[in-house]
Amino acid sequence: MMEVWQKEVFDVLKQGGVRQIAYVPDAGHAYAIRQAGSDPDIQDVVLTTEEEGVGVVCGAWLGGQRAVLLMQSSGVGNCVNMFSLLESCRFPFLALVTMRGEYAEFNPWQSPMGRRAHAALELMGIRVHRADRPEEAGEVVGAAFDSAFLAGEQVAVLLGQRLIGRKKWERDR
Predict the structure, then answer these.
(1) What average pLDDT does range 133-147 have in this prediction?
(2) Rounded distance, CA 129 to CA 141, Å?
């Protein structure tokens, strides 16, 4: 089910001229991933690991296009070394990060990086914004988009676990 905030977030990307969306498949980003896959103006780039996305986003910029990286908080840890590329080359950068390891988390493996994603991003020189309520998501992503693509900053938006909803463990019996 599509939430209004998800459409608002995708609209920010579309209206801002994003031409590539790189991602590791994630239910929290499902709406944006589906929209990118069906939009002839946007190339959806499926990654095997999140750090590849840093290179894709930087390469898109070098090729004259705007790109965004979608990932879970657990993927932030995978990207730390690649984030040095952003600082060294001063590439504009925008990542949308769905949070795990927070509200009603069932998977203990998600908690360590969920607790540290914000700090890890800031440690690597990335400005961090956060949206926890549906009514603020579009505005926060829009502000981050402008910081990245108008001011040339490196920015991540953390989309809180309450915003994206509970993940449920389903097991076959």
Answers:
(1) 98
(2) 8
Joined together, the tokens standing for residue 152 give 């040339």
- The identity of residue 18, as a single letter, is V
Q: Is 30 helix (H, G, I), strand (E, B) or coil?
A: helix
Q: Give me the percent of the chain exceeding a pLDDT of 90.
A: 83
Q: How far apart are CA 51 and CA 138, in angstroms?
A: 25
User: What is the C-alpha R_g of the chain?
Assistant: 15
Between 148 and 107, residue with greater pLDDT: 148
130 burial level (CB within 10 Å; 0-12, 13-18, 19+): middle
Quick one: average pLDDT of 80-94?
96
Are 13 and 21 in contact by the 8 Å Cβ rule? The answer is yes
Task: Give the pLDDT of residue 82.
Answer: 97
Distances (CA, A) of 94 to 4, 72, 110: 21, 14, 22
Q: Is the pLDDT of residue 31 over 90?
A: yes
C-alpha separations of 87 from 122, 134, 135, 136, 155 in Å:
12, 31, 32, 28, 12
Domains of the chain: 4-164 (3.40.50.970)
The alpha-helical segments, DSSP class H, found in 4-123 are 4-15, 30-38, 50-62, 73-79, 83-89, 111-123
